[in-house]
Amino acid sequence: MEIMTQSFKLPKQGNTLEEYEDAVFHSSWLKNPPTALFRAAVADGATEASFSKAWANLVVQAYCQGELNDEKTLIQHLPRLQKQWYAKVTQKPLPWYAVDKLQRGAFSALFGLTLYKNRYDIMAIGDSCLFHIRDDKLENAFPIAHSEQFNNRPLLLSSVAAPNENIAQHILYKQTLSLQSGDEFYLMTDALACWFLQMSEKKRQPWLTMRSLKPNHFEKWIAKLRNTKALRNDDVTLLRIITQ
Predict the structure, then answer these.
(1) What range defines the domain where residue 211 resides?
(2) Which of 3, 133, 168, 215 has a CB 3.0–4.6 Å from the CB of 184, allowing a cystine?
(3) In the chain, what are the helix, strand and coil shares in percent, each to the nearest 5?
(4) Residue 241: how many CA atoms within 13 Å on its side-chain side?
(5) Angstrom distance (rounded) from CA 204 to CA 107
(6) Is the bond preceding residue 34 a cis peptide, omega within 30 degrees?
(7) Distance of CA 34 to the CA centre of its chain
C-alpha cells in the first residue's frame, strides 16, 4: 500500500501564521516487520489559554511516536510531556500576568489515526475529527457525526495535571476498522469539520472539493467560506490522506 499526504493550515482571519494555534503531524509509512503502520494527528490549541500552540505541537508529535495512543500510554507519558511543555514555555522570563496564565495551563483537542496493512485505529480527545471516504461515500465520521453536536466547551487535553485527573476515562476510541486500498481520510479541526458535516447533511459531497484542493487555492477557498458565513472564523487545519 502507498500513502499520499498533504496538509493545509491557516490562522484566524486577521491573525498571522505566528498566531496559529493548531498543529498537524504525521509519520512515514513504516513497511518493515513486525508491523507496518502509519500515524497522523491534528490538534486544536485553545485560544482562551496561553501557550496552547506549544502544547498542540507536543501532543501531535507524541501521538505519532506512539506515546498517546491509548489509556495506558497516555497515563505513562502525559506527565513527561507536561514537564516538557513547562520547560519550553519558561525558557525566557515571563511577565507577571503570563506567569498567572501559565499556572492554569494550555489546552488542546487531539485526534490521532493509525493505519496498518488492512485496518486502522482512531482516537479522539475533544472535537477535532476524521472523515473516512470509501467509494465516494462517507464511511465513518468520528468522534462527531452530526454538525449540531459541536459546542464551545469540548473536553480538552491539558498541560497541567489537575484538569486531566480523569482524562483517560474520556478518550474515545474505535479500533480494528477495515482499511482498503483507495480509502481516503480527512483529519481536521473543529471549524472545518463542522462545515464538512453541514455539507454532508445537505447531501453534498464536501470531500470532492477537498480531494482537488491545491496549496495555492486553500487560502482563497477558506476566505470565501468565511466571508459567506459558511465557516466560523477560527484556525483551520486539514490533513488529507489517500491510500493506493
Answers:
(1) 3-243
(2) 133
(3) 35, 30, 35
(4) 31
(5) 33
(6) yes
(7) 27
Q: How far apart are CA 92 and CA 19, in angstroms?
A: 18
* pLDDT tens for each residue of 126-171: 999 999 999 999 999 999 999 999 987 888 999 999 988 888 888 9
Helix 52-64, helix 71-89: angle, nearest 10: 140
DSSP string, 52-68: HHHHHHHHHHHHHTTSS
Hunting for cell 507496518 — which residue is that? Answer: 36
**Alpha-carbon distance 86 to 105, whole Å?**
9
Here the CATH number for the domain that contains residue 208 is 3.60.40.10
Exposed/middle/buried for residue 210 (C-beta within 10 Å: 0-12, 13-18, 19+): buried
* Structural domain count, the chain: 1
Cell 474505535, located at residue = 174
The pTM is what? 0.94
User: Whole-angstrom Cα distance, residue 221 to residue 229?
Assistant: 13
- The residue assigned the cell 500576568 is 97
CA 56 from chain centre, in angstroms, equals 9
Closest by alpha carbon to 60, among 19, 107, 17, 22? 22
Measured distance CA(86)–CA(109) in Å, rounded: 18
* C-alpha torsion sign, points 217, 52, 110, 195: negative
Contact 132, 183 (CB under 8 A): yes
CA distance 63 to 124: 11
End-to-end CA distance of the chain: 6
